[in-house]
Design brief:
TIM Barrel
Length: 437
């Protein structure tokens, strides 16, 4: 079965400029436009998420499938997976994106045994490799789904049953092997069930030690096969578990420190997860850079009125601009990118809705990037920030931070001081941002 005709459109979406009213044309995303010395496409590094775009049926906690995708129905699971790959690569071509990302069970059907699942994944990996020979798209990252199957209801690496732990190792080995074969730039660990529902049946230290050992083994294997990219952990505070061990960037950093993983493991940050943790996307990005563990972004947004992971397409230009303002200060992405871990709403049932959602969000990201570039060029935020901390550039202040003054030395110097508070200028800075977005 071939479904390459799923989309009526045949020509890739193109940049038409600000005057365009075509929902399938870019108004801001001009991939070859130079931004701070790099092409816009190379800054944004867009990636299509295989799962939400081609695997999600349109259900929610109160209702089932609404999309009725033809590749989701039939008896021959492997043939359906091949047909889904045809549609996926056609969409990659139409959106002219440089990357895609996948979970193992999104691209290949899960078998009755681990061996059968690996065979299915290998078959689809063969198809991907063949398609990528003539396609532009490359693999941003792969990952393994260690949360949907009932065997993982009590976690994968953190499971009380060592046989489940071992099964997870086998599944991840196959997934990173496929990622490596396809030239993936990163490998992601998404701990959907690595947490607890109640402390009454949880040995937290044991489970964290298991997770640390799992990650150390994965890092060792990464080096053994010559996988050059980083391992990425995706922080998420809750849903489906009550509390997850990768709660936020700070929690992941502490975990990486404890288990000596900082050299090889970074974070893949998602806006929706940041919000659920009580943070902002900007906060998580800043903290990741501050601790040297920034890797990649899943670009989406949550609904402020719903306390769960809605995975909507990112459309907030101000939020995106602040994210890129921080990233550009540090040189932008290296191996990471903007992965659309986002799904269209269950009422958006037309094939074109898939394309339109991506186009609109790609334009929002491009507009945010341009705003960030302008703010940095004008020193709109960096100038006031430098002025705020200017006192720490004085010789005596530098001596304190360099460890050249004791606690008593500083206390003695304080006897001659009379510091006065200065305005933080919050409203001024908020107004400055509005000039650019």
């Amino acid at each position: 079965m071939s479904l390459q005709s799923f989309f009526d459109r045949k020509t890739p979406v193109a940049y038409e400029g600000l005057d365009s009213r075509d929902p399938l044309a870019f108004r801001f995303y001009d991939k070859d436009r130079m931004v701070m010395g790099k092409r816009m496409e190379d800054h944004l590094r867009f990636s299509i998420a295989y799962w939400h775009s081609f695997t999600w049926p349109g259900g929610d906690p109160f209702g089932g499938e609404t999309f009725n995708r033809p590749w989701m129905h039939g008896d021959d699971a492997l043939s359906l997976a091949k047909a889904k790959a045809d549609v996926a690569f056609e969409m990659f071509r139409l959106l002219d994106v440089p990357f895609f990302a996948f979970h193992d069970v999104d691209v290949a059907p899960e078998g009755a045994t681990l061996s059968e699942s690996i065979d299915n994944l290998t078959a689809i990996t063969d198809i991907f490799a063949e398609k990528m020979e003539s396609a532009k798209v490359r693999l941003l990252w792969g990952t393994a789904n260690l949360f949907s199957n009932r065997r993982y209801m009590a976690g994968a690496a953190t499971n009380p049953d060592p046989e489940v732990f071992a099964y997870a190792v086998g599944q991840v080995k196959a997934a990173i092997d496929a990622t490596h074969r396809l030239g993936g730039a990163n490998y992601v660990c998404w701990g959907g069930r690595e947490g607890y529902e109640t402390l009454l049946n949880t040995d937290m230290k044991r489970e964290l030690d298991q997770l640390g050992r799992f990650m150390a083994m994965l890092v060792d294997y990464k080096h053994k096969i010559g996988f050059a990219g980083p391992i990425l952990i995706e922080p998420k505070p809750k849903e489906p578990t009550k509390h997850q061990y990768d709660f936020d960037v700070a929690t992941v950093y502490a975990f990486l420190q404890k288990y000596d993983l900082l050299a090889d493991v970074k974070v893949n940050i998602e806006q929706n997860h940041a919000i659920l943790a009580g943070h902002s996307l900007e906060h998580e990005i800043k903290l990741a850079f501050a601790n040297g563990i920034f890797g990649s972004l899943d670009i989406n947004r949550g609904d402020d009125l719903l306390g769960w992971d809605t995975d909507q397409f990112a459309m907030d230009v101000k939020e995106i601009a602040l994210a890129f303002h921080e990233m550009l200060k540090h040189g932008g992405f290296t191996t990471g990118g903007l992965n659309f871990d986002a799904k269209i709403r269950r009422q958006s049932i037309d094939p074109d809705d898939l394309l339109i959602a991506h186009v609109a969000s790609m334009d929002a990201c491009a507009r945010g990037l341009l705003a960030a570039e302008a703010m940095l060029s004008d020193e709109a935020l960096t100038g006031p920030l430098t002025a705020r901390y200017a006192g720490w550039e004085a010789a005596e202040a530098k001596a304190i931070l360099a460890g050249k003054r004791s606690f008593e030395d500083v206390a003695e110097a304080a006897l001659t001081l009379n510091p006065q508070p200065r305005s933080g200028r919050q409203e001024y800075l908020e107004g400055v941002i509005n000039r650019y977005v």
